[in-house]
Amino acid sequence: MTAAPTETPAVTPPEPAQEPAGRRLVTRLAATPEIGVIATVIVLFLAFSAASDNFAGVSNLQTMGFDLAQYGILALGVSFVILTGGIDLSLGSVVALTAVLSAWLNASAGLPTLPSIGLTLLLAAAIGVVHGLFVTRLGVPPFVTTLITLVAARGAALAITKGFPIDGVSESFTDLNAYRLLLVPVPTVIFIVCCVVAWVFLERTYAGRQLYAVGGNREAARLAGIRTERRIMLAYVVSALCAGLVGVLITSRLSVGQPGVGQGWELTAIAAAVIGGISLSGGAGRVVGVAFGAILLVVINTGLVILHVSPYYQQIVLGLVLAVAVTTDRIRSRRLAGARKAST
Amino acid sequence: MTTDATTVRLTGLRKSYGTTTVLDVPRLDLHGGQIVALVGENGAGKSTLTGILSGIVRPDEGTVEIGGVALRTGDPGHAQQLGAAHVSQEFPLVGQLSVAENLLLGHPPTGTRRVLVDRAAQRRQARALLDRIGATIGTDRLVETLTVPQQQLIEVAKALGRNPRVLVLDEPTSALGPVESAAVLAAARELADAGAVVVFIGHRLDEVREVAQRVLVLRNGRLVADLTPGEATEQRLVRAMVGAELSDLVGEPRTAAQDRNAFTASALTAPGIGPIDLTLRAGEILGVAGLMGSGRSRLLHTVMGAIPRTGGVMTLDDRPYDPGSPADAAAAGVGLVPEDRKHQALLLDDPVRRNVSLAVLPALSVSRFFLSPRRERAFAAEAAQAATVKCTSIEQPVRGLSGGNQQKSVFGRWFAARPRLLLLDEPTRGVDVGAKAGIYRLIEQAAADGMAVLVASSELEELMQLTHRIAVMSHGRLVRTFDRDQFSKEAVMTAATIGAAR
């Protein structure tokens, strides 16, 4: 009496399509969206090395390593937010506030190095939590939410210092900047560690995957049972924490708490992320791209300085690079879309 | 303008989307001075017909003449010039502007100052428009602060304010209470008496009979009946809408449901629905029928925790079930295949793999944190196969799949989660016939495996073929439940259309 459907397909273990290893590498390279940035980095690096003997020298590479740590960590942090479809404009000001605060805790309040760094990072995380609450609970657009902090955090940095740098930072604090690991400055090592952690999180944990899903289609993610608000919250905390970390590194590098640092760095960080293929509409982009986007900006900046190009022209060049990156990204995604349409 | 002069003439109209013909009307004259009611099931072609009339939809063939002038079809501006006005079910209002500004949008107050807006004149003219339909809404209120019925009234007032020769009212009273409805219908009556053609789309058959001088019935894009109000008995209308040949289509019996309650809801309420009492047994497929706006989707979303519940108690497998969010629902063993797969279900640019694994990521991860790519691939391949998704590889972006295979991917996502209760909202919308049969098999399989399945659909044939029972919703409530041996299209349609009156 029960005519149960019996034609259930036998579940065989799935076999991912295998291709010859050589062809697979080529097709995979061609399909890697970050290939353009990586190639540009290599080409420019070789060009600058050829144009100037100093460029590839150890001391210049170390300077680039410091710069890379600053912009790279910020770019990684803001990428989390952009992946959810948001934006974080507060980075530069949070860098200034945390730079000043860590110096004040260490020099003026007399806390040892590690507690001052710890407290500073805690404050940064708190700023991220506030951003997350504004965006998820109050529904304030990310642009506006972080614009408030852009203004307020800068003001706080100036208020703490009354506009003057805080000096007297302890030696153990500045050591953070002075040490080298096999010639590689500690901040650069920290950046590399951040990259690895970010990569593992975004590509190899389920929470990271959910972050992409939230940015790709928030309603679909929600209805698929993902706690979208938690993921968004996490992104803002990561972003602010990264800014706090950079603030600490800056104070260590300058050995003073300087309230004027970080002006406009949020834009550099966003530019690095976008050049690296993080889609401003959310849900797409990878850590490799962000890392190389940051490297590209640092290479261009340093190269132009070494070639004695006027700072004004440097900015024009940076703008052009950004324009090229955005245009190729558009063309690429349109081609891909076209190919998809043709294939169906 | 004489009252019986032909004012609208439609000739040889055809419209198809893909291979389905949604409208095929060789000849239709609409006369001034009449309210013409247009009835039919969801998807019968009513909106297409009125859309053509007001220039929103361009027909593949055929002509429209309004007052003897040929309409440039597909040109809403031209239709407006010829005197056509359309009150749709979506309100194209600007929420941040006031009632008065919305009413006179694009038609600045006449005979007043040239550059600056004459607010006094604006208010006065807006007031006059609202008074015509007896609406008491303040002219300075922002439209976004208004309720849906109030917005509906403003839409009607706006359309009437243009003094149209042809007025299309698409379910103008579905959101309104009896008093407002009467006022709107009286205004429509007045306009028709002045010589205009009023086309009225309605679902409440009693209302249709009361207001119209002529009743047209559409079925599958064709005009199947042209009746006077006297001829248009409820029974006759329903039969014309449903089509006698289909009215008793019931397939072979399903796998019997188990004797165990999988899901219950009692006195469930949420914005726009309830109170609703519902019981689903394990292995049972329960259909939810009802007209557009009857609350089918809302019910499903409320059970999923996507719409906050305002009252009532639910249980799942005899345990209290109280979802605060879809995440809670998914954790408790409830899955939802939403109505609009592109906006509510899929990550279009992501591969099939990521789409099918989306709802089970935590369970799939190693030590509840790390994803293993190999494990995910194996899982996704199995899930895609179980849901019979046809794709070149699980790395193919879902955007490139056909509608049917996209939908099966969403099914695959939830089957893999092995929910106790599966909620399906229009599971075969935009899916071709072959894929439809495949999806039905998947649903039957799910029930045979012991899932309780709640299917909301606007296609009655679908529900009659697939389900054990059909619950009919009307105005947010369950008005009647049919067992399989009572299934008949006429009975279900009757309950859905006049359910509120019972």
Largest beta-sheet characterization of chain B: 6 strands, mixed
Our measurement of the CA-to-CA distance between the termini of chain A, rounded to an integer number of angstroms, reads 43 Å
Spatial sequence of strands, sheet with the most strands of chain B: 6-7-8-3-9-10
Number of domains of chain A: 1
The CATH architecture designation of the largest domain in chain B is: 3-Layer(aba) Sandwich
Report the uncertain regions of chain A: 1-19, 340-344
Structural class of chain A: mainly alpha
Give the amount of beta strand of chain B, in percent: 15-25%
Count of domains of chain B: 3
Number of helices of chain B: 18
Oligomer kind: heterodimer
Indicate the mean pLDDT of chain B: 84
The CATH topology of chain A is given as: ABC transporter involved in vitamin B12 uptake, BtuC
H and E string of chain A: HHHHHHHEEHHHHHHH
Largest sheet of chain A: 2 strands, antiparallel
Helix content of chain B: 25-40%
- Total number of β-strand segments of chain B? 20
Indicate the overall shape of chain B. Answer: globular
Beta strand count of chain A: 2
Concise account of the structure shown:
The complex is a heterodimer of chains A (344) and B (502). With 344 residues, chain A is mainly alpha-helical. Chain A has helices at 21-31, 35-51, 58-83, 91-108, 113-138, 142-161, 171-178, 186-204, 206-216, 218-223, 228-254, 265-275, 287-306, 311-343, and strands at 180-181, 184-185.
Question: How is this structure best described in words?
Answer:
The complex is a heterodimer of chains A (344) and B (502). Chain A is 74% helix and 1% strand. Chain A has 344 residues and is mostly helical. Chain A has one domain (34-331): ABC transporter involved in vitamin B12 uptake, BtuC. Chain A has a two-stranded antiparallel sheet with strand order 1-2. In chain A, β1 (180-181) and β2 form a beta hairpin. In chain A, α3 (58-83) crosses α12 (265-275) and α9 packs across α11. The longest helix of chain A is centred in the last third of the chain and has 33 residues, at 311-343. With 502 residues, chain B is α/β, with parallel strands linked by helices. Chain B has 3 domains: 6-246, Rossmann fold (3-Layer(aba) Sandwich), CATH 3.40.50.300; 258-333 and 419-502, Rossmann fold, CATH 3.40.50.300; 347-417, no CATH class. Chain B contains 18 helices and 20 strands. In chain B, the strands form 4 sheets. Chain B has a 6-stranded mixed β-sheet, with helices on both faces. In chain B, α15 packs parallel to α16 (433-448). Chains A and B meet through α8, α9, α10 and α14 of A and α10, α13, α14 and α16 of B.
